[in-house]
Hints:
The chain has eleven helices and nine strands. It is of the alpha/beta class.
Amino acid sequence: MSSSALTREQSSKAFDGHQYVYNHESSTVGCKMKFGVYVPAKAEKERVPLLIFLSGLTCTEQNFITKSGVQRLASEYGFIVANPDTSPRGCKIEGDSDKWDFGEGAGYYIDATESKWSKNYRMFSYINEEFYELIVKNFNVNPNQIGIFGHSMGGHGALISFFKRPGQYKSVSAFAPICNASKSDWGINAYTKFFGQDKNLWKQYDATELVASYHGPKPHAPVLIDQGSDDNFKDKQLFPERFIDACKTASFPIELREQAGYDHSYYFIMTFLEDHFKYHKKEFEH
């Protein structure tokens, strides 16, 4: 899929590289999309690994690059780190900005089928086709060393991308992902609008459902998931234990670390972010 030219909105020196923000006209979602990309100095000389980070509800391309401290790690490990926006914006669809947990800022990384939403809310295809190809084409990425990870709704997005596109990503990990989206109140509200009442469509974008039918390459080390014990959403929206049970049934390797005292915030992410870099680095080396 071809992408239009990139327009640079921001360039900031950070450690040995640069944090950029670009926009482009997306043919997939039919509007202008923004994304962040950190490019370390190493990428000026050779192809380097790529990590794609997907953010959570209410986020834009700015949250991760301003709150996580990712630039230090990306520089140290020599990774390009790219993070798209979470949703189409400015499409002017009635109801897409009425609530914080649906629409703009809450695109759920799915391809909607209901006619009202299906033209623009195609974030699954955007992430895994247009955006993916745009980053690989325009930056010095090693195509054999690409991983995906994310937080909350973005953790859900990373997991479903890994399961639905076997072999496209070398590695996957997540912070407090929405593990069973078709059964959480957030997901039920969104999926009813995006897909209508056909719950078989809902299951196609639910990590707990997808792991059972996954037959692609398995990671060398169990997939890393970090979950804060004091996360207010854990038991009502995220359902990590359901995902763990499904992974065990499917013999899919998973490691869920419950981190005592941590909540759902970026303080949690910044604390354990380097562990995820280490995890992906080991997977890239196999």
